[in-house]
Design brief:
The complex is a heterotrimer of chains A (233), B (246) and C (214).
Chain A: H1 11-28, H2 30-50, H3 55-76, H4 80-88, H5 90-95, H6 101-130, H7 138-163, H8 170-197, H9 202-232
Chain B: H1 2-8, H2 11-43, H3 57-84, H4 87-119, H5 127-148, H6 152-184, H7 199-231, H8 236-241
Chain C: E1 4-14, E2 17-28, E3 32-36, H1 43-50, E4 58-63, E5 66-67, H2 68-78, E6 79-82, H3 94-104, H4 111-120, H5 136-149, E7 154-158, H6 166-181, E8 185-189, E9 200-204
Parallel strand pairs in C: 3-8, 3-9, 6-7, 7-8
Antiparallel strand pairs in C: 1-2, 1-4, 4-5
Helix pairs in contact in C: 3-4, 3-5, 4-5
The chains are: A mainly alpha (233), B mainly alpha (246), C alpha/beta (214).
Domain MOSC (chain C): 110-214
EC number (chain C): 3.6.3.41
InterPro entries (chain C): AAA+_ATPase, ABC_transporter-like_ATP-bd, ABC_transptr_haem_export_CcmA, MoCF_Sase_C, P-loop_NTPase
Chain lengths: 233, 246, 214
């Protein structure tokens, strides 16, 4: 074996390998993928019990309920985003690789969205039926959640990266991240409401898209900087 | 210029120069706040709609201004600390955070008190109050994060990153909350968007705002000075100051 | 190839206590540098600083005579770091673990090389078991297989002998010596006494940091 070989595979190879690795890891611990979904369904079950089974009332609050519950479910899974990598030492290896850290972090966030945000978005219409969500808003619900949860994953990953070195980071993570989630919640739930009222939803979805574009361009750098801080101890 | 910034970054030099600046800001703050409140509370005309209850604006608006400005200053200080490793900037940021949270609380509280005669209730999901509430949570986040780290350097850098992330989000939050508010309560009377005030009303308000800013600068200088002594306690110049060594 | 890691006036403070101060280091190709000292003397911290992970220290690092800040990318491309935690995913097999490391290091995807690396650390027959089912020593060997897999001249190893049996220790020690002889460079902390060799050099960290003797 030679003493040194110039790294020939570029960042693309490392990003693809990281995507694959995280997907395989999550598929082998399926409960971690399922837990947020079960949580989502459970929280939605609580509301009719706690408020009223009246379909008309439920229909009014359904968009907000579905969005808030999905947001909390996505938040629930965030703490584990970097936690196991931090605990077993893979995170320091990730930081010491001669590859761009923001891109690698982005790959991890993409896997998180793929196995948390996307399933939540696909499941939401089902729960919408249970809350007698008016017809015609189901596609918008799923679409707004799919789009919005990507932003949530990106913003949340900053918080997860900042708290990964702390032994009890979970509650702190919610405190850091939830205020930053508010714009996404406003426009996400707003899109569903607009669909119910029959207004155009393209403006809402466009703003959600703009928020996602901004999160995509800025969050990876913040995540990388935060990981570097956390590894410092 | 460059040399000046680095000099300002030296704790010893900052400690000396701030000692000379500090009293001026205290005096200015006291005079401005005194004049502003006397004028605003006693001499400014009553509002044609709200009567005398509008006078709470002389606390509410300066506090709200300061609450936002402090967050921005905190983020700027965090940026300076991260890029140029100037520790003074971080000390100032650490000292600003509780004051900013307090100002946000004052703005919220005065808004709630104002709500009683205006809306007949202590709390209304008014756009400005809602934004202020979110800002308060952002402050709590920064303060809690700084407190959670055992290493001071990590705590400082984490708080700086969070302040910068927060400051990018504040305008987005503000814009979306405004949008949300107009969507849901288009008919409600808003205390903040109103026809132009006569000069007798806004002149004292301006004085109060300036007074609050001077108070903020004076208090931050004072607290940063004591933080310098705490962090640099083992340094020679501080021990000299304390008379421990000659 | 040239290889030179230098530290000038390194100082690190933790919890108002100096771990070390005024530490000057020169680490060249062909050397095994063992960092010694009692528990809590800052061995791991020093290795983390020298591998570019910690920012919270005073002093300056140089890689091949350039300040580390400017040559970080080149430095990382030459570095292989093995920390306290092995960095092995319990849910992945040793082969999968190594595949990720291979890609991360910019190596081409080469399964034969991975099998060979695992064979070199005595894990023949365990390649396809989840690493979580292996013993602590075997997991450590998976991490050590990276030394065989990824060609890097500068090795920074934090307690690499932990949990390894006697044969494994002897193998690893001769591996370090061979690496130094070929012009590589090893920076290591360990409680295991390394056999004297001309390449071996010691750095002692003590209390309060008046240290850095040969």
């Amino acid at each position: 074996m030679p003493l040194f070989r110039e790294p020939e595979g570029g960042a693309g190879v490392a990003i693809r390998a990281t995507l694959k690795r995280d997907l395989v890891l999550l598929m082998r611990r399926r409960s971690e993928v399922l837990n947020p979904l079960v949580f989502f369904a459970l929280v939605i079950t609580l509301f009719p019990i706690g408020i009223s089974p009246d379909p008309e009332l439920l229909a009014i609050i359904a968009p907000g309920l579905l969005w808030v519950a999905a947001l909390l479910a996505a938040l629930l899974s965030l703490d584990s985003l970097f936690r196991s990598d931090y605990d077993d030492g893979s995170l320091e290896q990730l930081l010491l690789s001669p590859q761009p850290l923001p891109a690698l972090a982005l790959a991890k966030v993409a896997v998180h969205w793929l196995l948390t945000g996307l399933p939540l978005a696909l499941m939401a219409p089902l729960l919408g039926i249970m809350l007698s969500l008016p017809a015609g808003s189901y596609v918008v619900l799923a679409l707004s959640l799919a789009l919005g949860s990507a932003s949530l994953s990106l913003i949340g990953a900053i918080g997860a990266a900042l708290t990964v070195g702390l032994s009890r980071g979970g509650v702190l993570l919610s405190l850091l991240v939830l205020p930053l989630y508010i714009p996404v919640l406003i426009f996400g739930a707003g899109a569903v409401q607009a669909a119910i009222l029959g207004d155009g939803v393209s403006a809402h979805l466009a703003i959600l898209g703009a928020l996602l574009a901004m999160a995509l361009s800025l969050a990876p750098w913040a995540i990388a900087a935060s990981l570097r801080i956390s590894i410092n101890g | 210029m460059w040399a000046f910034i680095h000099k300002l970054g030296s704790p010893k030099w900052f400690y000396a120069i701030s000692a000379r600046l500090q009293p001026w800001f205290w005096v200015a703050a006291a005079v401005l706040i005194l004049v502003g409140s006397a004028w605003g509370l006693a001499f400014a005309p009553a509002d044609y709609q709200q009567g005398n209850s509008f006078r709470i604006i002389y606390v509410h608006v300066p506090a709200a201004f300061l609450a936002q400005s402090i967050f921005v200053s905190m983020a700027v200080a965090g940026f300076i600390f991260m890029v140029w490793k100037i520790k003074i900037a971080d000390m100032a940021a650490a000292m600003m955070a509780p004051l900013g949270a307090a100002m946000t609380f004052v703005a919220l509280f005065s808004g709630a008190v104002w709500g009683v005669p205006t809306w007949g209730t202590w709390w209304m999901w008014d756009a400005r109050l809602t934004s202020m509430l979110i800002l308060l949570f952002l402050y709590f986040g920064v303060i809690a994060l700084r407190g959670a780290f055992s290493s001071r350097d990590s705590a400082s850098r984490a708080a700086s990153v969070l302040a910068m992330v927060g400051v990018i989000n504040i305008p987005i939050i503000k814009y979306s909350v405004d949008w949300w508010y107009t969507l849901h309560q288009p008919a409600t009377f808003s205390v903040t968007s109103r026809p132009a005030m006569p000069v007798e009303m806004w002149a004292p308000l301006l004085i109060m705002v300036l007074g609050f800013y001077c108070f903020f600068i004076a208090l931050t200088l004072m607290r940063t000075r004591s933080e310098i002594l705490r962090r640099e306690a083992s340094k020679h110049w501080v021990r000299e100051l304390a008379g421990e060594v000659k | 190839m040239s290889l030179r890691l230098q530290a000038r006036k390194l100082a690190c403070e933790r919890d108002d206590r100096w771990l070390f101060r005024e530490l000057d280091l020169d680490i060249h190709a062909g050397e095994i540098v063992r960092v010694e000292g009692p528990n809590g003397s800052g061995k791991t911290t020093l290795l983390k600083i020298l591998s570019g992970q910690l920012a919270d220290f005073q002093g300056e690092l140089y890689w091949n005579d350039h300040p580390m800040r400017r040559t970080r990318q080149d430095f990382l491309a030459n570095l292989l770091y093995l920390g306290h935690a092995p960095g092995v995913k319990a849910a992945l097999t040793p082969l999968e673990n190594l595949a990720w490391y291979q890609a991360l290091a910019g190596e081409s995807d080469d399964e034969t090389a991975r099998f060979a690396a695992l064979a070199a650390v005595g894990l023949v027959g365990f390649e396809d078991l989840p690493a979580g089912q292996l013993s602590a020593g075997q997991q450590r060997r998976v991490a050590l297989a990276r030394l065989e897999l990824i060609p890097r001249p500068l090795w920074v190893l934090d307690e690499p002998f932990t949990a390894i049996d006697r044969d494994g220790v002897a193998d690893l020690e001769s591996r370090l010596v061979a690496h130094a002889r070929r012009g590589g460079c090893v920076l290591v902390t360990t409680h295991h006494e390394l056999a004297d060799s001309p390449a071996l050099r010691r750095i002692r960290l003590g209390q309060g940091g008046d240290d850095a003797a040969r």
